[in-house]
Each structure stands twice: as structure tokens, then as C-alpha cells.
Amino acid sequence: NRQSIADMRLTIYGNDTDALGLVHLNQTDNNNNTLITLLVLDHNLVNPNNASAPSGFFGNLGAGILFRGTNNDSEMVNISLINATLVNARNGSEASALTFYSLNGTSPNPYLRPTLLLNGSDLWLNPVSGNTFINPLNGFVGIGATTQTTDKLFVSGSLTVTGTLNGIANS
Predict the structure, then answer these.
(1) Rounded to whole angstroms, what are the CA distances from 84 to 96, 98, 147, 167?
(2) What are phi and psi of 81, to 5 degrees?
(3) pTM as predicted
(4) Is 8 helix (H, G, I), strand (E, B) or coil?
(5) Residue 122 contacts by C-beta under 8 Å, 6 or more apart in sequence?
(6) 3-state class of 153 per DSSP?
(7) Which residues partner with 103 through β-bridges?
(8) Which pLDDT tens digits describe the chain residue by residue (171 residues)?
(9) What is the phi/psi pair of residue 2, to 5°?
(10) Could you please report the per-residue DSSP string of 76-127?
């Protein structure tokens, strides 16, 4: 006897006088552990062998937390998203990524875009606005840049170095 997703939704209503928020998770730690799990988000597939991914690709399954709020036009707006993705779901070689999305603020169609991605080997930083770019795919870093750089290190503006600056010139 299966329940539909609509049957499993939980909605909690409260008011702004709730001191600890609408949901307060508290786990008493009798063993003085340094780490306890307070919340588990599961994304279960009915048939994992038939996952909706391109042929030969095993991944892009995830679970996330979406933050929303009402703007001054009384519209519900997606503010931010934290998403955990299983980028490789093949048994024995699983790999994951944690991505933080933020609102770009561009009218008329603002959208959430990835601004920070962490995986097992890389850090990818893509600010919505600002001027620092780190691209782990090719190792390029831009400081003061307005677009992705094509140099390993690009600095726009003054540079101060205290100490020794070593380098090898190519001819």
C-alpha cells in the first residue's frame, strides 16, 4: 500500500512569536559525542536501475533545502537553495557535491544560480556579483576580474607582496 507524495507532505503553521522557530530539533547527547545527526533528507528512487539520467550517466540525484520569502509585491520568492547531489551513483564509486545557490536579483526573471560548489576535489566559486572568480576546472583565478580569466592568476588593480616573489620566466 503506497502513499503518494501529496499524502506525505507535512505543513507546520506558526507565528512570529515562536521563540525557537517552527521546527526545533533537539537531541539529548548522553554519550558526549562530538557529532550527531539532527536531520536526514532522503531521496529514494522506486527503481534505481531506471533512473532518469542520460544513457551511460549515473548521477544528478539529490536532496536540498529551499529558502523562500515574500517580497514587497506579496510574491513568494526563492531566496537560496542548499543542494546535495549524488553526481556519481554507481555502486562502489559514489561521488557527491554540495552546492549553494543564491538569487541573482535581475528583473524581470530573477533565478537561483550556483554560487559555491564543493565536491571531493574542487572548490568552485561563482559570485552573483563581485569580482573574484575561481575556476577549478582549469586552475584559473581572477581577482578584480569581471569575467572568467584565461590566465592562471589575473589581478586587476594594485598588488602588494610582502616577502619574496619567486618566478620563472619563459622565453
Answers:
(1) 7, 5, 27, 40
(2) -145, 135
(3) 0.65
(4) helix
(5) 136, 137
(6) strand
(7) 112
(8) 444 444 556 666 666 665 666 677 777 777 777 777 777 888 877 777 655 555 555 667 888 999 988 888 888 888 899 999 888 777 777 888 899 998 877 666 678 888 888 887 677 777 656 666 666 566 777 777 767 677 888 888 888 889 888 887 776
(9) -95, 145
(10) EEEEEEEEEEEEE-STTS-EEEEEEEEE---SSS--EEEEEEEESS-EEE--
Q: Are 118 and 97 in contact (CB under 8 A)?
A: yes
Query: Which triple of cell numbers denotes residue 147?
Result: 569575467
**C-alpha torsion 99→102→107→108, nearest 10:** 50
For residue 9, what is its C-alpha cell? 507532505
Q: Say how many C-beta atoms besides its own lie within 10 A of residue 133's C-beta.
A: 20
Cα–Cα nearest to 89, from 51, 55, 46: 51
C-alpha cell at 48: 534505481
User: Can you name the residues that pair with 65 across neighbouring β-strands?
Assistant: 82
Contact 62, 83 (CB under 8 A): yes
3-class secondary structure, 64: strand
Task: Provide the grid cell at 111.
Answer: 533565478
SS3 6: helix
10 Å Cβ neighbour count for 85? 20
Q: Three-state DSSP class for 7?
A: helix
